[in-house]
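S1.2 Input.
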Amino acid sequence: MMSKITIDPVTRLEGHGKIEIFLDDEEEVKGAYLQVPELRGFEKFCEGRRAEDMPTITSRICGVCREAHYLASTKTLDSAFGVTPTETATKLRELVYNAYIFSDHLLHLYFLAGPDYLVGWNAPKAERNILGVIKKVGKDVGKRVIETRAKVTKIIEILGGKPIHPAFGIPGGVTKGLDEEEFEQVKVIADSCVEFAEFTYKLFKTSVFKEVDQEGKLETYYMGLVDDKDRVSFYDGEVRVVDPEGKEFCRFGFDYLDYVKEHVEPWTYVKFPYLKPVGWKGFKDGKDSGIYKVGPIARLNVAKGMKTKLANEAYKEFFEEHERPAHFTGAYIQARAIELLQAAERIKELSEDKTLLNKDLRNPDLKTPSRGVGITEAARGTLFHDYTFDEQGLVRKVNLIVPTTQNSSPISMTVRDSAKRYIKKGVVNDGILNRIERDFRTYDPCFACASHFIPGEEPLELILRREDGTIFKRIKRGGA
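S1.3 Output.
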């Protein structure tokens, strides 16, 4: 008689997700699946919209990674209108983008993953939240987390016009630059970012890295943007893919559809991308399976180094201690801390670049729009925006492939392996469920638009079903 365990909703992520775990007659785990029970349809309702509206519309896909969608969309307009932004505009965009990466990684490390790693997966549920993190690391550190995120968000507000959903990108450039006073303000903020990034990296290195070392292992392909020296690049670059042995498999950009295809399953609204030349072989890892990962550890695996000094030193140390490519799922948390260093250092480098004060904010040489492709590295991984326009500049077709979609297969496989590791003879408890969720949250999944976590309350329901669908056991937490 098969039983089913349902984790719905999964907490401390962006959006809504559900995990279903199936047990066999011996009450051992037979399979596990990640489901996304909501359909949002951005690709469809963008049809007929004006080109210039697309960055504003698509940034609403997510209230957390809004800058990623906004600037990926703006880059797509550059491509569609056949225009190259000015050097000043490109650097201003990159400054905003690194501010976003820095802020988002802090959000994950302290608010979303912090309760799992700094507080502990088996801690009382009332402590597995940001308040528990503050209790663990101290009020001063908690205050610095909040203050530093507020400061870096100020950079986005100065250039983007507002702290949430920026509004400064246009085809060929930006609408606003920096004056002398703002330039000096950004420099001060940049210094505090580097200081806190160093502190955070050391904190997680001493408190967390050993715990997650070699935890969970999936040998897949990896994808990420690299610059012309094959270093990790967030805003711009070429997509590089390596195989499970670390050998280069392919490189691409505008022609991404020659390499990426999506598989559909009837039980979820999320698609499952895979490498087209390898093919879909089901939910399994290995060189013969086209499944790949994106995100922090994928970026480190495809690159040959980091762009900045401190980050590159941490990168070298990481690969001196681990195999290359690093396949263990816990590497995501380590890679995220390393990337935090690069984002902070890059903010500082750009804040000292006098080019940002130039007034050449836009290249007006726009052509009749056609098809455009924009690719960036969101905090969670490679992000593709692809629009086709008619001669009037109205959208006729939209294709969006977001990071969590690309990680949907590895996430499902990680959940499956985690459930098999922790659930024995059908015995489950709050700590075991949270440990499965923790492995899931390592990917920092973003399913819709915002986190719905309420401190101290995790509205999670576990249901065990008989083969005929009737419920014989129900466990509820975060509610009556």
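S1.4 Remarks. The longest helix spans residues 180-207.
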